[in-house]
Amino acid sequence: MSDPAARLCVRMPGPERLTQQEHVWRVLAGHLGVTLELVRPAEATGVYEAVVLPGGSCRLRIRHQPERFSVHRLKAHAVRHAGREFLLPAGEFELEMRQLDDAAEVNADVILGLLSLLQLWEEHEIPYRDRFGLVEGGRSPRHAAGLLSEPLMEHVAAWLAAVLDLPRPDPPPWGLAISCDVDVLEDDHMPAVLDFLGRYGVERPTFMICTVSGQERTVRDPQYDFSSPEIRRRLKPLLDADVEIGLHGSYLAHDRPEMLSAQRRRLEDWCDRAVVGHRSHFLRFAYPRSWAWQRRVGLAYDASLGYPDVPGLRCGAASPIPFLDPEDPATAFTIVPTAALDQHFFWPEVWETPVFEAYVAALLGRMRELGGILTLDWHTYTLGGGYTGWWDRLGYILEAAREQGARLAGIAAMVAWWQGDRGGSPSGERRRAIDV
Ligand SMILES: [Zn+2]
């Protein structure tokens, strides 16, 4: 367990407020499970200076670069510390790290590099969208560089912890958040889905249900009628099981708060419990205002940040991170990036088994070394019918992760565990306050 008394103290590079950069530090401290203290000096220094208190023996100085850079120039720089290698995002130039007696210095702005990822600069610079308005991972320069599934936020956090001697368990805690979108309900497949997840010991898995109705519906939406008695009967096994019910917002609801609110209300009326989680159908998303809409209608997290075409990490992070709402910075809303979907390994073409297994080994290995949460999304209807092998691949991932010590649970349970003390069960909730 992390030391609950440890504080990450950061002196910012100058007296002016750097809202976005401060948020990056908040993301890192939250990920490491420590309190953050930010100080703005009276005079500009041009560097961030970080230390862990009490008792931190080393200071880390990171050069602050105010200039924005093109994401085509983003590079993951390999650095070593105490025999381990970390990848640090920064602009395209030589990154040098100097170790002094009581301090370490880095000549590149790693905070700006991480900011470029968390703020999705990539999607601002590369305007191409598919016919459903989706950002494709195959268009990212990180895809060409083999970095699309590299959890760079987790790399930076683990590097900070190592350099600053932050008390941290070794190996760090990690887990998989398992979620299922309910897009088709043509048969009674829920008992088989629950049985499958139960066999792998997934605690409180998440099911995202679409309640689109009447004029809200488009040809792209799930075609089941949530209000029909037959559909209610097919969904009933979920009500009787210990699962999380989340909202699968309809095709247009990502940008229409009144629609989103009505859909959430219908779901809560049915399940008679609070619905806090959300993922858009088709992963439809307007950045960043979809998150603002979702928070305003009472949701607590969103898991829509994923690619339709390939597995990967759209914001360079796998783990849950806080959302910075520019209109309400003190707000609490969590972004849960979705790394992989069932379809990624089968469509438009089937990944050969050795390629799939090598990918899984690399991704799980990273999460195990660095610590964090990886979120998966499998559609319930692909368990049967013409989708031979789709759930076998989920089974392979769950088994491999469990063997390597990962916790397996639904999204809300994993987020509560991650934002709590990270001991015991993923269901045990204890939030740690993060100073702002
Ligand atoms: Zn869907």
Calculate the terminal CA-CA distance, rounded to whole Å.
Answer: 23 Å
Radius of gyration: 22 Å
| Topology pattern, helix = H, strand = E | EHEEEEEEEHHHHEHEHEHEHEEEEHEHEH
The count of β-strands is 18
CATH topology of the largest domain: TIM Barrel
What does this structure look like?
The chain has 436 residues and is α/β, with parallel strands linked by helices. It has 2 domains: 7-163, no CATH class; 174-419, Alpha-Beta Barrel (TIM Barrel). The chain is 30% helix and 19% strand. The chain has 12 helices and 18 strands. The chain has helices at 19-32, 110-118, 121-125, 141-144, 152-163, 190-199, 229-240, 257-271, 289-296, 353-370, 390-403, 411-419, and strands at residues 7-11, 35-39, 47-53, 59-63, 75-81, 84-90, 97-99, 103-106, 174-182, 206-209, 244-249, 277-280, 301-302, 321-322, 334-335, 340-341, 372-379, 407-409. Strands 9, 10, 11, 12, 13, 14, 15, 16, 17 and 18 form a 10-stranded mixed sheet that branches. It is globular and about 70 Å long. 46% of the residues are buried. Mean pLDDT is 94; it is low at 427-436. Zinc ion is lined by residues 181, 183, 248, 281.
